[in-house]
Amino acid sequence: MFHRFRIVRQYDSVDCALACLKMICQHYKMYHSLDASEYSYYISKDGISLASVVEIARKNHFEVACGKVFLEQLTQEVTLPCILYWNRNHFVVLYKISQLHGKFFFHMADPAKGHVVFSLSEFEQHWSTDTVDSRAQGIVILLEPDGNCQPTTVKKRKTEKKTFLPILLSYKKMLLYLLLGVLIGAGIQMAFPILTQWIVDKGIEGGDISFILMVLIGQMALITGNMFNDFFRKVLVLKLGSRFSISLLTDLVAKMLRLPVRFFDSKPMGDFIQRLQDHDKVERFVTVYFVNCVFSLITLLVLGIVLMTYNGYIFLVFVLGSILYIIWTYLFVNKRKTLNYELFAVKAKNQGKYYEILKGITEIKLQNLEQRNRDDIENIQKNLYHTNVKALKIDQYLDVGNVFINELKNILITFLSAYFVIRGDITFGMMMSIQYIIGELNVPIAQFLTFIAGYQDAKLSLDRMNSIFSIDNEEDGGKEAFKPQHGVISVEHLHFKYVMSGNDILHDMNLCLPLGKKIAIVGSSGSGKTTLVKLLLKLYEPTQGKIVVSNTDIKNVKNRLWRNSCGAVLQDGFIFSGTLRENIILEKSFNEERFHQAVSISNVETFAEPLPYKYETRIGDNGMRLSQGQIQRILIARAIYKNPDIFFFDEATNSLDANNEKDILEKLKPILKGKTVFVVAHRLSTVKDADIILVMDHGTIIEQGTHTSLVEKQGYYYQLIRNQLELGN
Fold it and tell me: Is residue 223 over pLDDT 70?
């Protein structure tokens, strides 16, 4: 069916709203890019809020109205197309409402499923959020271009997107060798029908057994040559596949490592895992389907010419049958495409759920959540099963039609061949040769159609990967030489929010702190302490304002240079799979003196030395299990070994017992002397000796001073630590 309303697919489970806005833009001939990278500030792992959709639409020159409307208002008064809030977790575009025999039908563009049509009852079930006086109502976003909007084209920007042609051309030498192998194979294929004809027409009819033996020996030589040709061709394909796979996957991982942390906050884990696995489809297309397609096309060309020289009518029947075969297959392309998107979404959800279960297995057992998680997996598998059943049905319809067309074509060709033999237009040997050619040509036709399906899968996979390659890299300053040792750290009118439409996490913060001092940050949970630390580490960019260190805006300092100057122990610090030593040094060079100092000060040696392999003991997901206290000691040792100019300790000792904490803090004092140290903590023992204590609440600094001055003030800081003070007394 022909649809005038052009669909835009979502690549992730959270991109549906942007895809809907793209469709509306295209409808009004406004080709804004609306890349997820440009609006990552608006997207979280839960998706995008209605407020964010409205704000993005207004930024792109739309007048927007958003709210609840009754169903009868939607069918009679609303201007289409519009965006609907669907199933309470999704966005779709309603572009047409039709009537047939007095019944309403709703035509929608779903970025996850494609073009869909619902009856009134089905539509109400998915769209309605509540009822008022038995009247269904749901959420609608109405959009019309404002007066400032003009039809535009997408402004192209430089990206790292991958396309098939450059990928293939990067392996020109191998492809030339493969082409040579394919041509040799096609030449051998061309000889077989001619030899078959000779055996029948000259050998059998002429009664010449020596000629038959000579032809058979020739056939055997060609078969042997073809075997060697196939062997070397497969070796080349294997090499091409390996190099291509390594190149594509490493490029994708390298790109992901250059992306800002915010990007990883905006998507579920399952989406990332599924994308990394998508490279298999692209590799299979380049190394299998593409090579087979080239071989098939050359075979079709060579054997087609031979067939045409035998009989033009038979060749015409073959061509018409093949065209019909291809048309029938093409009718199912869009349906397969829709299912591919649906399958990606279900598989990504499946991957995410497995990851969640494996990571949260302890909590699942503690909370007796085994049955609930089992049910979740079962429901996902049911969805996966239903999607696969849909795909199987399409394949069955496709196969039935293809088999019927193919067999009908073969029967007609057999009949025509027999008819022309009886008439004397062709010999019996030619008929045998034609049957051989038709058998050989059926394979390339099937392979060509497999190529179309493979291309479709690979194109979708490459598009998903390109949605990552199109994202701008993490902002990086240009300043190569910087040492934060003198002066002050100045925070000027700093604002920050994780999601643009959300509330400020940090609000109009202003600070001036001397370098070389110990600065403690305290406050209730959720006051913005960790967020401030992550901004100081350049893990996030401020929404507004700036951070200036030694008269230099850290935005202008190279990320690698700045982070080399910082050592951090964060609440979510990570232990890599490897040895204890590797987890502490994290670099190729090794300084034994610094290493022993780090493990001594952090008390890592107290649990590492008794181990059979000491610091070569494997830890992480593939090694020895560690307690939270041991993990924190390793992270502290890592920061000490790095020997940075600025230290950040975010609840770095909250999992340590009192004795270990006291011992480590005492040992840290000499090496931290003269260094800039930021400490986020709730324990009084950790913060009371700080030179400056910053007290945070709701994203702002409400108090600042030393422990003594703040206690005397008896303000918010005093209320936070009063219980600890009373316990100390």
Answer: yes
- Of the ranges 229-233, 266-270, 533-537, 575-579, which one carries the lowest mean pLDDT score? 266-270
Residue 501 has, within 13 A of its CA and on its CB side, a CA count of: 18
In angstroms, rounded to a whole number, what is the distance separating the alpha carbons of residues 203 and 432? 14
Looking at the chain, the whole-number percentage of residues with pLDDT higher than 70 is 93
d(CA 413, CA 316): 10
Sequence-separated contacts (24+) of 337-342 with Cβ below 8 Å: 337/114, 337/456, 337/460, 338/113, 338/114, 339/387, 339/390, 339/391, 339/394, 340/456, 340/457, 340/460, 341/9, 341/10, 341/112, 341/113, 341/114, 341/460, 342/112, 342/113, 342/387, 342/390
- What is the rounded CA–CA span in Å between residue 541 and residue 563? 14
Residue 400's domain spans which residues?
164-469
At which of 405, 439, 469 does a domain end? Answer: 469
Angle, vertex CA 207, rays to CA 201 and CA 211, nearest 5: 75
Report if residue 5 sits inside a domain.
Answer: no
What average pLDDT does the structure give for the chain? 84
Identify the top-confidence range among 328-342, 399-413, 512-526.
512-526
Contacts 24+ apart (CB under 8 A), 167-170: 167/244, 167/248, 167/286, 168/286, 168/290, 170/247
